[in-house]
Design goal:
Shape: globular
CATH superfamily of the largest domain: Aldolase class I
Number of strands: 8
CATH architecture of the largest domain: Alpha-Beta Barrel
Distance between the termini: 44 Å
CATH class of the largest domain: Alpha Beta
Number of helices: 16
Strand content: 5-15%
Helix content: 25-40%
Length: 352
């Protein structure tokens, strides 16, 4: 299954090779903090999105979209792994279930400078299930343990697992503990827990993000029963106040769609959750700092919308937000001077 690419929108060879971390050692210089992270999200957390989010927060841990082992081993792995130096701390999420293939891909990730490799044991889509990827692996804890051990034996960077609290047919707390226990015994020390079960028979991925109820109490019990493990909470978190409350129980929090649709939330993260005294960046300033990156992408032959589609939520809640979105999602396809139009969008956010 070599069809899941984080960079499918790119249309030309890179002119940013000097700024890429391909074939360089781990660029972050240590184990990244998982106190706050942005979830891997298909079609969303590509390298352009991550570059933008990094302008807002220096400390948030960013994840790639899920990349399958087949895409790396039988596709253009350099293109799949490409990222900008500024994106660190940065984790690669892998989808796969063959230990030897995952080990080979983990080595590629380490060689490319990634700070962590995360194994996807949470995606509920039919497409990944048919390839023994994602949430269906919760029914095979010994195999997940073998996958983790193979990767840990292959690399020095951390190997983590993102999973659900269960799947249909295997959704008891005892089975969850069995899964975590077996994967822990294989050497994994960090688990990101989406506090919903995944219903693999009959629900779409979107429905699986909404219909199964959130059960934070199950994830909290898991932390109490496995106090030696790092447990990161994922699922339904929308505000920094909620993050701070959950951090009383968990070692970290992971936000998904809220971080994408309301990205300016990240501008408060460094001060609120990492006690960092860096001044918050303004919305217009963030776009101004993004502009040279856009210029380089256009010079490569890329299109403006590859990048601007990720910033549409930046004006959320402000007068002029509708015009801002129209400029960067509709008008952007009609203009002959996309940078001038981008400057108009910046002007709309001045003083915000």
């Amino acid at each position: 299954m070599a069809l899941i690419s984080p960079y499918a929108s790119d249309s030309a060879p890179s002119l940013l090779a000097e700024e890429s971390t391909l074939n360089t050692p781990n660029a972050y210089g240590g184990t990244p903090s998982r106190r706050f992270s942005v979830a891997p999200m298909m079609d969303w957390t590509d390298r352009h999105c991550r570059f933008f989010l990094r302008l807002l927060s220096q400390h948030a841990l960013l994840y790639t979209e899920m990349v399958t082992t087949g895409a790396l081993l039988r596709g253009d792995h350099a293109r799949f792994l490409r990222h900008d130096q500024s994106e660190h701390p940065l984790a690669l999420q892998l989808g796969g279930s063959v230990p030897e293939e995952l080990a080979a891909c983990a080595r590629m990730a380490e060689d490319a400078g990634y700070d962590e490799v995360n194994l996807n044991v949470g995606c509920p889509s039919d497409r990944v299930q048919n390839n023994m990827i994602g949430a269906c692996l919760m029914g095979h804890p010994a195999l997940v343990g073998d996958c983790v051990k193979a990767m840990l034996d292959a690399v020095a960077i951390p190997i983590t697992v993102k999973h659900r609290i269960g799947i249909d047919g295997r959704d008891s707390y005892a089975e969850l503990c069995d899964f975590v226990g077996q994967v822990r015994d294989a050497g994994c020390r960090s688990f990101t827990v989406h506090a919903r079960i995944a219903i693999l028979a009959g629900l779409s991925p979107k429905e699986n993000r909404e219909i199964p109820p959130l059960r934070y109490e199950v994830a909290a019990q898991l932390k109490r029963d496995f106090p030696d493990l790092e447990i990161i909470l994922n699922g339904g978190i929308k505000t920094l106040e909620e993050c701070q409350n959950h951090l009383q129980t968990f070692d970290g929090v992971m936000l998904g769609r809220e971080a994408y649709h309301n990205p300016y939330l990240l501008a408060e993260v460094d001060q609120a959750l990492f006690a960092h005294d860096r001044p918050m960046i303004g919305r217009a300033e963030a776009l101004t700092q993004l502009r040279p990156y856009i210029e380089r992408h256009l010079a490569e032959g890329g299109a403006m919308h590859h990048i601007t589609r990720h910033v549409l939520g930046l004006a959320q809640g402000f007068h002029g937000a509708r015009r801002f979105r129209q400029l960067l999602s509709v008008d952007i396809h009609k203009t002959t001077d996309p940078l001038a139009l981008f400057d108009q969008a910046i002007d709309l956010l001045q003083g915000r």
